[in-house]
Design a protein that fits this description.
Shape: flat
Largest sheet: none
Oligomer: single chain
Structural class: mainly alpha
Mean pLDDT: 84
Strand content: under 5%
Radius of gyration: 22 Å
Number of helices: 11
């Protein structure tokens, strides 16, 4: 292991190099991280502090600092705790597009289950073990496309940024993204938008562009990533064709 890794990362990578059984009692970095995740899942990142985590575990705040040195270190441990790659992404897939769609679907499940992820401060590129495992699986989906490795990395970065941005918008919209709220917004647009001032927007409103399709079930009427992802993957397909790769559909 690199002995120059910053706090938090040294814990995560050290566990991979030298795995040790977790003590049945007392504190440990994994136990602290799980308690912090429970707090964040219930109340967002604002609910997470060293004092609250200590209280949840029944220890003093100072005792936590013997295992986790700072809040930033705790956030790294939390992210890696929830970012384990699901087993289905290790299943063989010969279709690069299907592989990336599966990757995004799994990402979406994780991001919706732990909405606080979108509020984590960005301190650099992915570097924890589980973050790099996600990157590895996405690159693997592009293995046989014939794209240069730099293009593959660019595609993965583009898709990952799109998924995170879309999840952030969904999380911050909250109830405003529900089917009922969207219907109210569409009705409001119908009242406010006149053809003289906003001709293109009026045409879109009249065409139902801001409505959910009539056959969309209520549980499915929520902010989604599928339309934007499809357009991105269309662009990737074009890139593969331009590069002369065998993976173009």
């Amino acid at each position: 292991m690199n002995d120059k890794l910053p706090p938090g990362l040294d814990l995560l990578w050290g566990r991979l190099d030298e795995p040790a059984p977790e003590p049945r009692q007392g504190l440990s970095p994994p136990r602290i991280a799980r308690a912090a995740v429970e707090l964040a899942d219930a109340g967002g990142l604002d609910a997470v502090s060293m004092a609250r985590v200590a209280e949840r575990l029944g220890f003093t705040t100072m005792s936590l600092y013997r295992h986790v040195k700072s809040k930033n270190e705790l956030l790294l441990l939390m992210l890696d705790t929830v970012a384990a790659v699901p087993a289905e992404l290790d299943e063989p897939c010969d279709d690069w597009r299907l592989g990336l769609e599966r990757w995004c679907a799994a990402q979406w499940v994780m991001l919706r289950a732990h909405t606080w992820i979108v509020d984590l401060p960005v301190t650099g590129p992915p570097i924890t073990p589980n973050q790099l495992a996600w990157t590895d699986r996405a690159l693997g989906a592009l293995r046989d496309t014939g794209l240069p490795e730099s293009d593959k990395a660019g595609v993965v970065l583009l898709i990952a940024n799109y998924m995170l941005t879309t999840a952030r918008m969904s999380a911050h919209l909250g109830p405003a993204a529900s089917g009922e709220s969207i219907a109210a917004y569409s009705a409001l647009l119908g009242d406010l938008v006149d053809a003289r001032r906003f001709p293109a927007l009026r045409t879109a409103v009249d065409a139902g562009a801001f409505d959910y399709p009539a056959d969309t079930a209520e549980p499915e009427r929520r902010f989604d990533y599928s339309f934007g992802l499809a357009r991105i993957l269309d662009g990737v397909d074009t890139l593969i064709r331009q590069r002369g790769g065998p993976g173009a559909s």
